Task: inverse folding
């Protein structure tokens, strides 16, 4: 059950942070904080990966639907994607998910290091 709550907590936390601060690297901080603070110890990589992907997908849809996907089409033309916005989304979400998942693993290891060393 902590697995589902972890994804939900990370989704809400990261969506709020991304909406107001809008820096991509904050996904690592929010993923680390969510896993560390709420003691999510099972499947931490998947919690970070899925939570960040869902959050970024929500932000993409929130920003792109009103603008008729102009930004993503333009950005996909800068890379060798030949204007394929869907492929651009998949690559972007995958990279964000990897960063979030690795940050979640780091948070779990730091939590184990801090709280298991006192025993």
Result:
């Amino acid at each position: 059950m902590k697995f589902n709550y972890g994804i939900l907590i990370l989704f809400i936390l990261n969506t709020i942070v991304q909406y107001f601060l809008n820096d991509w690297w904050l996904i690592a901080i929010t993923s680390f904080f969510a896993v560390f603070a709420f003691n999510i110890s099972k499947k931490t990589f998947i919690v970070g990966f899925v939570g960040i992907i869902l959050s970024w997908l929500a932000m993409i849809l929130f920003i792109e639907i009103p603008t008729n996907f102009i930004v993503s089409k333009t950005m996909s033309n800068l890379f060798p994607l030949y204007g394929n916005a869907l492929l651009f989304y998949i690559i972007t979400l995958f990279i964000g998910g990897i960063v979030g998942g690795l940050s979640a693993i780091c948070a779990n290891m730091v939590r184990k290091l801090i709280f298991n060393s006192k025993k």
